[in-house]
Fold this protein.
Amino acid sequence: MRCAWMTVQAIRTTFRLTSVVAGLLCLVAPDPSSGHDSLPGASSAGHAESRNVSMSLPKSAPMAFILAGEFAMGSDRGQDDEQPVHRVSVKAFYLDAQEVTVSRYAEFLASQKPDPPFKWNEATGGSHENKPVVGVNWYDARDYCRWVGKRLPTEAEWELAARGTEGRVYPWGDAHPTKGHTNAGHTKWRGYDTLTNVRQFELGKTPNGVYDLAGNLWEWVADWYDATYYQFSPRENPSGPTAGPLRALRGGAWNNDAKSIRSANRAGYAPDARRNDVGFRCATDAAPSTGR
């Protein structure tokens, strides 16, 4: 039986905890066979000039401004797909300061009525509304970002935000990750309680205030994934290969180790896969006069 949803306007003006709960209860859980419990070992292949500027768009999370900059993309100490290290210049842009949450994705489901994410039946209003949504495929992530007037970030944008122009190992710097920096190193999915709320780790944020770029969930980015792309990547605003079977992910997840959540690490997965260790955040272009 199809559930009756609140209108988009009602959600915008009266969205309360009760509406989240109602929205969650109305969704029909997807077949567990359509998803997976974990991402196989990621194909793992300076302080970014930035400022604490935030912006809010309708239905959207706060964003951090990432100033245009040039940095060394990749790592000589990483996997083959992180090499060769190459200089990349990226124009200024805005990036969501947090991953998209259960409550925000519930609004999208109510408005657009796409298929619900994998494990959506495990999300509970109240206790889980500030957890990052899991189980979205690449197309879901793209469509949500379009719905809020944004887009997915490119791999280069994501890495600049995470590493800065000085090439940090992790979003917070070079210090080895601890439980105060990130949610990682777990082995068993315990429902949404496996995840931490967005914006929880003050020690783990970037210098300009972007949270959870390491651990919690892998994040879809816009690019197709190619393990050899760094061998022929353009220098200016690279946007990835023109086609391919896989889409790129960055950041590592709750079930990864310290090596996998490094900010230079890369992964690729089928764009139609819905998993319990994958989420996303959105980006948007900065005005042409903003930045360098």
User: Anything to note?
Assistant: The domain at 48-285 is CATH 3.90.1580.10 (paralog of FGE (formylglycine-generating enzyme)).
